[in-house]
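Can't paste images in this forum, so I'm doing it all in text. The chain is below; anyone willing to post the predicted structure tokens underneath?
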Amino acid sequence: MREVIATDQAPQAIGPYSQAIRAAGLIFTAGQIPIDPATSQIIAGDVSAQTDRVLKNLAAILQASGSSLEKVLRCTVFLKNMGDFAAMNEVYGRYFKQAPPARSTVEVARLPKDVLVEIDVIALA
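Text version of the structure:
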């Protein structure tokens, strides 16, 4: 069974994809970028501010699915510049204090709307 998850508390999909899918007891989120769901605009600021917004968006999607950041098993972080790793990691650590999930972080040439960070997660439902 496959269920689409959608909430207006996170940015709406800007293409043919879902915010998240629930299947086999797991939640698979689409990659989230630092769009403020209230304005549908990219937030201003550095990678710290953008990481904070991304994680708030992910938390809203997970909450809508009946899950939470505490149930995240795996994250993939995409950074425009690996030089931003420490700043991203400091904000990320505020959201995942106890038993953090497995994670990969990769530098990419370009992200949607030229943002500095994108994150997707897999969580327990």
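Helices lie at 47-65, 85-95. The first strand starts at residue 2 and ends at 5.
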